[in-house]
Amino acid sequence: MAAVDIDVPVETEPQICNQEDLERPLSRNKSGNPFKTLAESFKEQGNAYYSKKDYSQAFNYYTKAIDACPKNASYYGNRAATLMMLCRFREALEDSQQAVRLDDCFMKGHLREGKCHLSLGNAMAANRCFQKVLELEPSNREAQQEKKNAAALLEYQRMADFGFEKRDFRKVVFCMDRALALASACHRFKILKAECLALLGRYPEAQSVASDILRMDSTNADALYVRGLCLYYEDCIDKAVQFFVQALRMAPDHEKARLACRNAKALKAKKEEGNQAFKNNNYEAAYQLYTEALAIDPNNIKTNAKLYCNRATAGAKLKKVDQAIEDCTSAIKLDDTYIKAYLRRAQCPHASPR
């Protein structure tokens, strides 16, 4: 990330804090000018560490400056800049907002607030901040460019929402990749991308995105949901249910996790009922139960491939040869690595080579 501008103090106009905010009284040097306040001293040390790219130490000294003089907007502004370099955008947003509360004409404060909103995926809030900067400084090129970035982010969101509605998951992944280039800290965009990767069968990529989020926030319900979704689509239904339950524990109103959990349990139960009916030589019941299971979730490719194959076996027992061949073919279309479906189709009487 490019370095964020900080506010360097002007020595001829030192910041004067309330006396009770100071840890030591002011004194004068030989030239008769007052020494900088303790808070300004801390700020200058923070600036020095910032210029050396030692952002952790810069953060510590800006915090000391704030503790010594909590009514100075530039101290919060500089700490916000440091937090941005540390990719701690939510904390940086809070400091930027405090800076502009203290000084509504603090242009850099509004600019930083907008950048934080943008990094977190809040394009409309970011746009308002950049507009405020342009009201204060109409020729500010950085604000002009960031305003364009906020508009682009809104457009990517719109396209992604439309793509998801149309089940064009590749389009959503494309849009989210572009959006994340502008909003790198937006968990919402990462989760949507991961969910679509899972729906596209790109489970390792989806798992990787969800795991990255969980490393930072182990209670993130959306990431837990995506982890469960990947396991569910890989036919690890029991483990998937555990993640869905955990997601619902963190966020009881998480509708996607609730639906996925219900589907996972229903799919497992219906499949097991069909298997039991088949073992009991009740092929008609098994055929019907597999049919009902196939209607539960069309997105679960691996489980549905097995269900088609199982129904083909039941159909062969019922002398439904054509349907059995079709079911084996459907299983192969869903999972072209499913060897059992090829073998079962070859074993069907009168099956022509395919």
TrEMBL record:
Q: Where are the transmembrane segments?
A: none
Q: Chaperone: is it a keyword of this entry?
A: yes
Which superkingdom heads the taxonomic lineage of this protein's source? Eukaryota
The TPR repeat units are at: 39-72, 107-140, 221-254, 267-300
**UniProtKB keywords:** Chaperone, Repeat, TPR repeat
Output the PANTHER family linked to this UniProt entry.
DNAJ HOMOLOG SUBFAMILY C MEMBER 7 (PTHR45188:SF2), DNAJ PROTEIN P58IPK HOMOLOG (PTHR45188)
Name the UniProt record assigns to this protein: DnaJ (Hsp40) homolog, subfamily C, member 7
Organism field: Oreochromis aureus
